[in-house]
């Protein structure tokens, strides 16, 4: 905005608008912008890098890899639940969030929660039981549960940057 624009009656500069927001709303905006990309990095690093590489490491047997994977994904899902809760709280307290309650960020957030609940409450317990069987020396029947979990991870890889980009665009002047 030009100096002339700032001097016009009723014209409020973007910087002043940001400073006038309550601290909670400014913090919420930072969370809405940062958390989707942090979460995306975690999913990419663990699901698409660590997990496949783990089984190629020398000396890692299938039972050992599954045991490690169970621990890693339990920790990842716990962190994801915290990040989803932080995003939800940010949407509820952010000025930008309030203006988008019926918009894309809220819809994407609901989609992320749905994927996460399915992974944590439905898929992972079944995958854990299957891993226990393999670790115990049994050979369970073939299953597509793992593919469903991977599909959910792929959906998150699409939704998370979508959320971050939409929020960034809405926060820009």
Automatic annotation (TrEMBL):
Recorded superkingdom: Bacteria
Transmembrane parts of this sequence: 23-49, 80-97, 103-124, 145-169
Keyword Transmembrane helix: yes
Key words, A-Z: Membrane, Transmembrane, Transmembrane helix
Name of this protein: DUF4149 domain-containing protein
Organism: Micromonospora saelicesensis
Origin organism lineage: Bacteria, Bacillati, Actinomycetota, Actinomycetes, Micromonosporales
